[in-house]
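Throughout our pipeline, every protein is held as a single compact record rather than as scattered files. The remainder of this section carries one protein's record, kept here as part of the documentation.

===
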Amino acid sequence: LVGLLLNSTGGWAWADPVAALVIAAVAAYEGVQAWRGSACC
């Protein structure tokens, strides 16, 4: 949502794709941790 907000208010067209890449990186990291069986808490 922050990427969309920056895109619409500031005209920063690159903010939304960068936010999506950050979310994808976090999801990949969490997936690897879950695959390894690391404790979540």
